[in-house]
Amino acid sequence: MEFSARQTVIIAVLVLFLGKFLTKRISVLKEFNIPEPVSGGMLASLCFSLIYVLFDYSISFSLMQRDVLLVVFFTTIGLNAKFSTLIEGGKSLVILLILAICYLFLQNLTGIGATLFTDLPQATGVLGGSVSLSGGHGTAIAWAPSFESQFGVINAAEIGIACATFGLVLGGVIGGPIAKYLIKKHKLTSTSKVQLSVGIKNEKQQQISVDSVLTLLLVLSIAVGLGLNLHELLASMGVMLPIFVPCLFAGILLTNTIPMLFKNVTWVSQTPTLALVSDLSLGLFLAMSLMSLQLWALVDLAGPILLILLAQLLLTLSFSIFVVFRLLGKNYDAAIITSGYAGLALGATPTAIANMTAVTKKYGASPKAFIIVPLVGAFFIDISNAVIIQTMLNWVS
Predict the structure, then answer these.
(1) How far apart are CA 372 and CA 340, in angstroms?
(2) Cα–Cα distance between 37 and 34 in angstroms, integer?
């Protein structure tokens, strides 16, 4: 059975409500800041997989609107990114970028090391390293043919998708507990007084009007339009980036020019309306991504993949807590960035943002984190990863 776009949205909303219900009723989910789309999406995916196992009935979804939500979400992040905050966090951005690039090497070396205990080719360690984890599903699918034809990795696409899938889940689960541990241990508190970058901490106290929604709709449409044109321009120059990256930069451009040119304009940055749309688009994107996982397709590869993922999980935990947090200054912003980086290293940028959103809703805003992590995860990592993947493959060939 394949659900249409409309039906997929309906199910995604129900899954998101399910996640909210679970978070309210299961204290451990709330205590460790597990994102609501992760808990609801995983339970839905397990239920759909059970239907397949028991009744041999496959369920699939129309996911075109999921990609639209991703573009909208990153555009809202750009609209919240003021140069003043970016300059303030410039040092942290450089540190995190250097650490993230170094980690790509460590991630691949860890994957290669894990393959020594299996019958898999060493190149599989790279596939189960930065290709599928830091790179995500798209990178794994793109590189799979090369792994099969050049390095003899059988079922490369399935292995890459499996690692990316489990990494997405693990990345969404460990970020909250990491932040809680760091915040409690070091007695950290938020010093920011601004509106949350994503989500609303106390919805009953927020004012959202028709005018604010219309203004945001207008600005979002313009920003996405600029982003799409920028994407076409870059593509014509041979620079290929995911569509959401130019849209992110279009949002940054608008939010740092329009308020300066038009002093009397009430801009959308740091408003409850923008935070609400960010939260909504991110939540629905993750709900659709997780509920559509076909877990039954990964069973045959479970043993070797779990070994690789266990090694990667331990590496991510150790690197995040003992390296990233410490080098970023061991303060509240560092704790939030660390929770996001853990999601980024194992899953994807939306997972990282979901981790930080869940934590900041509980402990307070961190605008610096919501600029630094998306820039590193959505732009710099993709470029660096492509070079490092090829370097590691040359090494194991």
Answers:
(1) 10
(2) 9
Tokens of 140: 């794994």
Q: What residues have CB less than 8 Å from 181, skipping those under 6 apart? A: 321
Task: Give this prediction's pTM.
Answer: 0.72
Taking CA 296 as the corner, what is the angle to CA 292 and CA 298, rounded to the nearest 5 degrees?
100
Q: Could you report the per-residue pLDDT of 296-331, keeping only the tens digit for each?
A: 766 666 677 888 889 999 999 999 999 999 999 999
Secondary structure (DSSP) of 350-392: HHHHHHHHHHHHHH---TTHHHHHHHIIIIIHHHHHHHHHHHH
Asked if 143 contacts 393 with a C-beta cutoff of 8 angstroms, the reply is no
Instruction: Please list, in sequence order, all residues whose beta carbon lies within 8 angstroms of the beta carbon of residue 140, skipping any fewer than 6 positions away.
Output: 127, 131, 132, 157, 160, 161, 163, 164
Q: Which fold has domain 2-396?
A: Na+/H+ antiporter like fold (1.20.1530)
Q: What is the mean pLDDT of residues 215-244?
A: 87
Q: Measured between alpha carbons, how far apart are the two ends of the chain, in Å?
A: 42
pLDDT band at 12 (very low <50, low <70, confident <90, very high): very high
- Other beta carbons within 10 Å of 240: 10
| List of E strands, 27-113 | 60-61
> What are the extents of the domains in the chain?
2-396
